[in-house]
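Hey, I was hoping to borrow your eyes for a little while. I've been staring at a protein lately and its backbone has me curious. You're getting the sequence in one-letter code plus the fold written as tokens. Would you mind checking whether the tokens look sensible for this chain? Here's the protein in full, and shout if anything looks odd to you:
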Amino acid sequence: MSKGRKSSIEEFIALSDEQRQQIFKQIEAETPQQRMAQSRQLNAKERSQWRRFKKKGRPKVGRGAKTISLTVEKELLKRADAYARRLGISRAKLVARGLQAVIGSAA
């Protein structure tokens, strides 16, 4: 995007609260049929982008992931969750790191 021109989002954010509320009211007053009448089909570039975004999903790590069921003693799980929160990671990431630390590249 060129430096001299604001994006539609930036232009909307720059509006006053009253102007934004007016736009919201206009949009909410439209029926789905009216919105469809104003819409258009995606062009080739937009269709390509849509397909790319649609199939993204979660990023693969390694060869992908497998969901498992795991039984863990309640107190240990409580401590693990607290530790993961302190590190700012998910429980799954903590378990994966633990397995990696124990097994390493031996398996």
